[in-house]
Write a structure and sequence with these properties.
223 residues, tt1808, chain A, 21% strand, elongated
């Protein structure tokens, strides 16, 4: 009797590396700021995928080769939920733009490892921001690997079209139309203010219509 052929071993690609999304509130605030605003920027483009703290596996069969950029953007990939970004299931397309936000817990060896990972696996633009010291660095892919962006103040990302600035130590980005990236809290405040103003205008119009009716006029048929 012939022995049954060995079945291929099932490979597990974990959806978490056991590390927190951020080590402190400042780091988390910047990550959310970038993720929310980039998601909004590309909301109407179905083939742009934006993620935060998502494990990226570039090589099929090698779950040990992985990293989790704080924020990443993949052009040419559909929106949707994923447990991880398996590149061979994404048309072989790597995230073209990645961001990392430093915290006091980052070791130099970890930063070097991530830099080399991104350089090896096809990232086109890599941005690194230190919110404690107000340092912003960037690298672009060239034929020989990554080349540093000489001046990040006012730099415009070739892929994203956004402009980078440092205001003091704070990272501030601007959309291609010149509108400033704003935190969700600020967006919510603006929305609530607009709602209040709309309600005040509705009440004013209602009072005016009531006054016209009291005077014997029909506000619905005024010329």
């Amino acid at each position: 009797m012939m022995a049954k052929p060995a079945t291929e071993k099932h490979i597990i690609y974990p959806d978490t590396n056991g590390k927190p999304m951020a080590e402190n509130t400042k780091q988390l605030e910047v990550i959310v700021y970038l993720y929310d605003n980039l998601s909004a920027l590309f909301a109407d483009q179905p083939d742009v995928f934006v993620a935060a703290d998502l494990l990226w596996y570039p090589v099929e069969g090698r779950p040990d080769i992985r990293t989790a950029p704080d924020v990443m953007v993949a052009f040419g990939r559909p929106k949707g939920h994923r447990g991880s970004y398996k590149q061979w299931e994404e048309g072989g397309i790597p995230p073209q733009v990645v961001f990392d936000v430093l915290s006091s817990g980052n070791r130099p060896s970890e930063l070097i490892e991530k830099f080399l990972f991104y350089e090896q696996h096809g990232v086109e633009e890599y941005y690194l921001y230190d919110p404690d010291r107000g340092i912003l660095e960037g690298w672009l892919r060239t034929e020989g690997g990554f080349s540093a962006v000489k001046e990040m103040q006012g730099w415009v990302s070739p892929r994203l079209g956004v402009r980078f600035t440092l205001e003091g130590v704070e990272l501030v980005l601007y959309r291609p139309d010149g509108e400033r990236f704003v935190p969700y809290v600020e967006l919510r405040r603006r929305w609530e203010q607009a709602q209040r103003e709309a309600e005040q205008e509705r009440q004013r119009a209602e009072r005016l219509a009531q006054r016209l009716r009291e005077l014997g006029a029909d506000p619905e048929h005024l010329e």
